[in-house]
Target: Pyrroline-5-carboxylate reductase
Amino acid sequence: MKNEKVAIIGAGNLGKSIIQGLIDTKSFPLKNITATKRNLADLKDFEEKGITITSDNSSAVEGSELIIVALKPHNILSVLEEISSKINPDKHIIVSLATGISIAQIQKSIGKDLPIYRAMPNTAADVQESVTCICSTDLDKERNETVKSFFNSIGSTIQINEDLMEAATVIGACGIAYVLRFIRAMIQGGIEIGFDANTASKIVTQTVKGASELLIQREQHPEFEIDKVTTPKGCTIAGLNEMEHNGFSSALIRGIVTSYKKIEK
Model:
């Protein structure tokens, strides 16, 4: 992976999070990364750190082997058609980050038989904590490892079937926003019961981090850890029951399903 040249086509918020994560890991040569965007002013900070920036997608593709296409669903296919003449099936690996656009659609737009992957990271790539779901019809082990290695450098990866990619978008990518909204609400509650905003934020963010680590390291169901905290007639169970009476879990589940249905449309 260290010798691969990478083009990130369409460095918007997600693309920039990936680039920042790559910069901070210091495990990938920045001179091997090219990022594209129409407005290059947004990428000037990356250029100062050694990233090549350009508004020319075709030249970025020509100079790279691994092509990360971080474009929106509404324009990815047209851009792929524009640069298809520069895509070499013997040289390039295409990785699409676009929600709702299938491998078959990407293949048709490019008009060539070559290795195509779909991946769904999230903006926690910025701090090397993304979870990236990956799918492909490519059976080549070396190329699979190349793609996994790239995304492992900004977090962790999970291989899934393509029919689950939209669900992965909701849980893994939209999920960042859901969790952040929950954190914001906890901070607001902390302020109401007496903390200043800064102190409440420190307590809440570390509490959320600790809760996640408990589940990751202990590999227990959340309810197992909840039971440790909910003593009979205690304040924790009183608070949880009040939240449930007001539809806490139901609202979250309905939000997830609504996001999924939006993608399906």
